[in-house]
């Protein structure tokens, strides 16, 4: 395959057939991701929540007394903005599914916990989640499952940086393409003047 057509450059991501393995991985990941998204929508709809509210309740359910969760901790765990999580948490509090209490060591913070109503809702939901999650991941061995969890954690922690890079590179390539088109369409003297203006910072 011509290097200009490769969708990655790191040797670890390429093989003798170019980027075919990488593309296959991404196709499989997108297919699995669509199934996960669909299952999440089903889970949330089953208990009349939005998909984000469902995730927030699950995240708080898995907090501990030693590591209580506030808005910032939920936002960090779910890779969401603090403002967005705050808005959703307030809805869940109004609906009687979450409760806020002062943090025992920091009076400026609050910690979140499920109410009994919220706990009952998740107990009802778990009857649906168990068979579906078993079907999604049940073909993995314990070691494969642990490895998958570790790999996805590493990938997720780097995804935001990759997205910012995508936006930056996209803008740079667009500017380069616009410059090439403008240069091709303008007379030689105009191209020289434009390059001189850029060099002088004007």
From TrEMBL:
It comes from the Bacteria. Residues 22-157 form the HTH marR-type domain. Residues 177-202 are annotated as: Disordered. Pfam families: MarR_2. Residues 191-202 have a biased composition (Basic residues). PROSITE patterns: HTH_MARR_2. This is MarR family transcriptional regulator. It comes from Bradyrhizobium zhanjiangense.
